[in-house]
Each structure stands twice: as C-alpha cells, then as structure tokens.
C-alpha cells in the first residue's frame, strides 16, 4: 500500500486546489442556488412565490394527467383499462392504518433483528458460495 501514497497525495492536493479555486461547490446550479457547508441547498428564492407557483403548476399538471388517465380507463373498455380503473379505485378507497406499523416498529428488539439479519446473510452466503453457513452443522454418519 506504500506505493500508492504519492498518488493519494496528488489526488487530495488537486481536491484542495480545486476547492480553493472555486471557493464553493456551486457545480452546475444557477446563480441563485448554492450548497452550504453541510450540503443542503440554500436558495434565496426558495421561499419566494416563484417556487410555489412552479410547484402548484407542476402538481396541477400531474393531477390533470391522472384525471385524464382515469377518464380514459373508464370510457375505453378493454381488459387492461378495466384492471387499471379498478386498481385506481381500490388504491383511492383503501384505508391505511399507520398506527399498527408504528407500534410494530417501536416494539422491534434490535438483538432479535440483528440475529435475523445475520441468519439471512449467512443463508445468502451459503447459496452463493455453495458452502454451508457458519452456524449450520454438518453431521456425517460413520
């Protein structure tokens, strides 16, 4: 590994020089956008009306497309459109109870989860390498 030290040094020196020359990591963003030192997007126009107008227009266009899709599926009677329409109705009418999922997630014990994941990884490893997993025991009859 000692042979690579000069290459690492030149790589990191190039990164430092690039950082000094750019003075920030703006990349291909417009002049109003830049990344702060934590990597999050700081945009002066983010809270302006322009952003929200574009977002509302984008959401209205998507809603219109979904509406047209459902109307076409309702009026054109083929097997696929009937299935798509029925699926759309079932998704809209489905009542999702997230409290059960949240309660289940709160009651997960990390030790049992770790054991299950380890067993799962061992089984995958044994399938890939065609060798028995580490905690499988092989008994040979004599």
Describe what is shown at a glance.
Helix content is 63%, strand content 4%.
Features of the shown structure:
two-stranded antiparallel sheet, mainly alpha, single chain, 142 residues
Please explain how this structure is put together:
There is one protein chain. With 142 residues, this protein is mainly α. Among the domains are: 7-46, no CATH class; 98-129. It has helices at residues 5-22, 49-75, 79-93, 98-106, 110-129, and strands at 33-35, 41-43. It has a two-stranded antiparallel sheet. α2 crosses α3. It is extended and about 70 Å long. Residues 25-35 have low confidence and may be disordered.
Give the topology, please.
Blueprint: H1 5-22, E1 33-35, E2 41-43, H2 49-75, H3 79-93, H4 98-106, H5 110-129
Antiparallel strand pairs: 1-2
Largest sheet: 2 strands, antiparallel
Oligomeric organization of the protein chains: single chain
Query: Using DSSP, what is the number of strands?
Result: 2
Strand content: under 5%
Radius of gyration, in angstroms, nearest whole number: 28 Å
Would you list the SSEs in sequence order as H and E?
HEEHHHH
Task: Tell me the structural class.
Answer: mainly alpha
Q: What does the average pLDDT come to?
A: 76
Q: Could you tell me how far the N terminus lies from the C terminus, measured between alpha carbons in angstroms? A: 49 Å
